[in-house]
Amino acid sequence: MAQKKVVSIEDRIPQLKLERKKKANRRFFTYLTVILFLIMVIVYLQSPLSHIQSIQVSDNRVVTEEDIIGLSELSTNQSFWMIDVEDVEQKVSEHLEINNVDVERSWYNQVNIIVNEHSRVGYVKSSNQFYPILENGKILKEIQLETPRGDAPILYGFSNEEQLSRLTNHLSKLDESIVQLISEIYWEPDDMNQDQLRMFTTDGQEVIASIHNFSEKMKVYPSISSQLTPDMKGILYIDVGAYFQPYESGEEVQLDSSEEDSDS
After folding, report:
1. Can you say whether the dihedral through the CA atoms of 201, 204, 210, 213 is positive or negative?
2. pLDDT tens digits along 178-217
3. What is the mean pLDDT of the chain?
4. DSSP per residue over 181-231, as a string?
5. CA distance 257 to 64
6. Domain coordinates of the chain in residue numbers?
7. What does 30-96 look like in DSSP terms, one character per residue?
8. Would you say domain 50-117 falls under CATH 3.10.20.310?
9. What does the alpha-carbon distance between residue 165 and residue 129 come to, in Å, rounded to a whole number?
10. What is the pTM of this model?
11. Domain 120-263: CATH class, spelled out
12. Which of 51-55, 62-66, 104-108, 176-180 has the weakest average pLDDT?
């Protein structure tokens, strides 16, 4: 039987000391790395490098960037990492014209505020001031304008709030390009039709329409009005069917409706 080599304790001591020294060195460098990292984090958090460097606002159309940033209460003096996103979104959403808000951190020092606004579907006039009407039917009495923006029609004569609400509901269903074709809408109810409207459009037409089918008729208005030549002066009726009545002769001119064509 082969004899086992016996290593004395005196021979092992130097090796054990070396291994202990290596472990101690590894432990020291690990602690040193953690301490240095923590020091760097503390210095970073206390320095301007950790502050918000840029606040970007996007998708706003009516509400100004300055107003949105003001509502957010964010500033470049604040820590980027201490932002309460939900709190900022809640503050910005308090604006009556803002429907939804998303706040996002970008990179290590930029904040993005993405807003979704309620569309303005009209303006009402009172005491020589114009007040916006939103797609949800709310009249913004807090916002007074000397002149409307031109992005929605001016509404006159709507003493009945229910009728106004019905009309704004129809306007909210239309594309902005259609809404911007209308410059003025007058509510002119009579014994035969409490929903009757008289409109004036940006392409120079006087139009008789009705609240109950307003959005359906206005969606096809461009194709109906395109059948009229610039020299034709009169009233375009789209409340029932579609026809044109010249101011002078009063003889009705029947028009084709693209609504009927699209259904065929």
Report:
1. negative
2. 999 999 999 999 988 999 999 999 988 999 999 999 999 9
3. 87
4. TEEEEEE---SS-TTEEEEEETTS-EEEEEGGGHHHHHHTHHHHHTTS-TT
5. 41
6. 50-117, 120-263
7. HHHHHHHHHHHHHHHHHSGGGB--EEEEES-SSS-HHHHHHHHT--TTSBGGG--HHHHHHHHHTST
8. yes
9. 20
10. 0.73
11. alpha beta
12. 104-108
DSSP letters, 132-195, are EEETTS-B-TT--BSS--SSS-EEE----HHHHHHHHHHHHTS-HHHHTTEEEEEE---SS-TT
User: 244-255, pLDDT tens digit by residue?
Assistant: 999 887 778 888
Instruction: Indicate the residue type of 5.
Output: K
Confidence of residue 29 (pLDDT cuts 50, 70, 90): confident
Residue type for position 247? Y
pLDDT band, residue 69 (cuts 50/70/90): very high
Element at 103 (helix H, strand E): strand 98-106
